[in-house]
Design goal:
Jelly Rolls; alpha+beta; 7-stranded antiparallel β-sheet
Length: 417
Amino acid sequence: MQATKNVISWRLFLFYCLFLESSSQDFGGQTQFICTSVPKDMDICAATLQNSVPGEDLKTTVMQLRETVLQQKETIMNQKETIRELTSKLARCESQSGAEPGDARPGGRRKEAGTKNTMGDISRGPADTLAQLSQTLQSLKQRLENLEDLLQSKIDDLEKQVLSRVNSIEEVKPGQRNETEQRGRVESTLTSLHQRITDLEKGQRENRPLDKFQLTFPLRTNYMYAKVKKSLPEMYALTVCMWLKSNASPGVGTPFSYAVPGQANELVLIEWGNNPMEILINDKVAKLPFLINDGKWHHICVTWTTRDGVWEAFQDGVRRGSGENLAPYHPIKPQGLLILGQEQDTLGGGFDATQAFVGDLANFHIWDRKLSIGEIYNLATCSSKAQVGNVFAWMETSLDIYGGASKWTFEACRQLN
């Protein structure tokens, strides 16, 4: 029986190694044996299934093998128990029959023919019993040999199925390689096209003047913005002008905000919610009579002086409103941060998507003086006499752009025609 057990274990181990070798050939190219740690009470086929099963067909095949092995193992264990019991009874019968002919063991009695024997058979003698047990043993041995042959045949069949599946997988590999190569060619083509587009955009930027561009903020987010590289100086008067285009509703958001340490709303232009556009200086507010969210380009300017806080608002070269007492006698402080497209709740941060600017912005300029009505009209009509800001002038090299805001070629005079 030990030999039978060894044969079965050897067959299972051989199949396990064959399966691992086939899997190795499928995924590598060089054959190697893999040593896998298996828990003491775990079946080797179950361990094989957990560690290396290339596909549902292999999984089904190994499960069938595992089920067959378990069934045959249980049958063999039952037969072993029966043989052990019969062998024990045969030994007792042989010892008793050997003492019968004239043996008078102390305290023993002679066993008469026809009396009930150890096996419970009252019609047969010891010789008949021994012959029957011998026949039973031979029958059981024959059955075990038949079971071994059946199990081996099943293992061979399953091995053939597994090898067939592995071969079919290997046949599919060329198609997979072709698909991979095709995908690689497509990705290479896309990369080449992207590089060509980048080169064209680079050439376009190199060929255009540095001030002929616009910033586009397509979405209302808290991460799209542009940052002016230098701070503003201390100012006792100012003029801020720009071109804007937006159809955002409600409100176009915040075209720009300037924050300084201790004051996030030092200088802000905002149209938020259903409120009109407002200019904030040192957190003081003036409502501006601008109507610009019609999807068209508009030129707007705001002037202010610290004396009495006088301000004026111009749209498309025409004065639309004015007032006073806007942060009077408060100079614009230096050492701040100027952001385009977002409203700052803290210095350089605290952006709120609901207050973000959505649309296009161009030709943003700042002066440290109040421009005249004629100068503002020249800016709005693209006159050759128009000036650029002496505090901040609109240049690509003056800005850092973040979050997906984009730059495009822009010429204000062409937009007006």
